[in-house]
Design goal:
Blueprint (H helix, E strand, L loop, with lengths): L6 H4 L16 E2 L12 H5 L14 E6 L6 H12 L2 E4 L1 H13 L7 H9 L14 H10 L3 H16 L7 E6 L2 H5 L5 E6 L2 H14 L6 H17 L6 E2 L4 E4 L5 H18 L4
Parallel strand pairs: 1-6, 2-4, 2-5, 3-4, 5-7
Helix pairs in contact: 3-11, 4-5, 4-6, 5-7, 9-10
The chain binds 2'-deoxycytidine-5'-monophosphate (DC).
The site of 2'-deoxycytidine-5'-monophosphate has 14 residues, from helix 4, helix 6 and helix 10.
């Protein structure tokens, strides 16, 4: 892969409140299968020590989930910057898996091929611009539906959350299953959504700003298809954690969303006397 970037560019350094009118209508999820996350009730019940126990300050974890083009990535980056936390765009892990499969002319739908690629994902390459293409986006949604792939990427995500790269003492992870599966004990959980039409408009603007010829109808159709694939798959589908703050950004300015999320993080930091 080209364009190697430092870890921190792609991986840069609780709620239950808020409006509840997400669009599209994601499922409300209970914690799903998978190894117990560090520090969770399940890991404690199994006698596992939390990853940060005995190592001083534990990591403060912000989980942000939501559908494609909802603005969660930008929000995650801004929150990480404001609070000095590390950021992990978990969608990039699935995209990197897909890229590795495509580069080897493999079939993204083949579980063994995709799982092997997931094990080879190098977190230092998540900022590769080649991960952003349409072909990779489609293949990423195919590999993301394979349970073995999700399992292969689990430890990396949980380790990042529990032990973010220094000097950060907290982590912001954005994706589809962060609050439900990856970090069910996150300190703050946000579910960022918007109507499909609003998301399509934003995506069209974004693409045109990059000089690409974007047609609203085909962008809308693409988003509908991606929503369906992300929400309807068996393995860790897009879902709202029961204790997540839902922010519907359809009519909200990105700065207002950022301020609202920042307030929630600041309040939770204070409540937990986290420093
Ligand atoms: O957010 P994105 O478009 O970069 O995500 C790429 C694909 O990966 C998309 O189909 C959703 C999937 N994904 C996932 O299944 N779980 C995550 N935590 C993040 C992304």
């Amino acid at each position: 892969m080209s364009g190697e970037k430092p870890l921190t560019s792609a991986l840069s350094p609780q709620a239950g409140r808020g409006s509840r009118s997400p669009s599209p209508s994601p499922r409300v999820s209970r914690e799903r299968e998978g190894p117990a996350p560090p520090g969770s009730a399940r890991s404690a019940a199994r006698g596992q020590a939390p990853a940060w126990e005995g190592e001083g300050q534990r990591s403060f974890i912000v989980a942000i989930d939501g559908p494609a083009a909802s603005g969660k990535g930008t929000l995650a980056r801004r929150l990480a910057e404001r609070f000095g936390f590390a950021h992990l765009d978990t969608g990039a892990l699935y995209r990197a898996t897909a890229r590795l499969v495509l580069d080897a002319a493999g079939d993204p739908a083949d579980p063994a091929t995709a799982e092997a690629a997931a094990h080879r994902v190098d977190p230092r390459l998540l900022a590769d611009p080649r991960l952003r293409g349409d072909e990779v986006a489609v293949a990423a949604s195919v590999v993301a539906a394979i349970p073995e792939v999700r399992h292969a990427l689990l430890a990396l995500q949980r380790n990042f959350a529990a032990q973010p790269p220094a000097p950060a003492h907290g982590a912001v992870l954005d994706g589809r299953d962060i609050g439900t599966v990856i970090c069910p004990v996150a300190d703050v959980k946000l579910f960022v959504t918007a109507s499909t039409e609003a998301r399509a408009c934003r995506r069209v603007k974004e693409l045109r700003a990059q000089g690409a010829a974007a047609i609203y109808e085909s962008v809308l159709q693409d988003l509908n298809q991606r929503d369906a694939r992300d929400s309807e798959r068996q393995a860790a589908p897009l879902a709202v954690a029961p204790d997540a703050e839902v922010i519907d950004t359809t009519t909200l300015d990105a700065d207002i969303v950022f301020e609202r999320a920042s307030e929630l993080v600041a309040r939770t930091l204070k409540e937990k006397e986290w420093q």
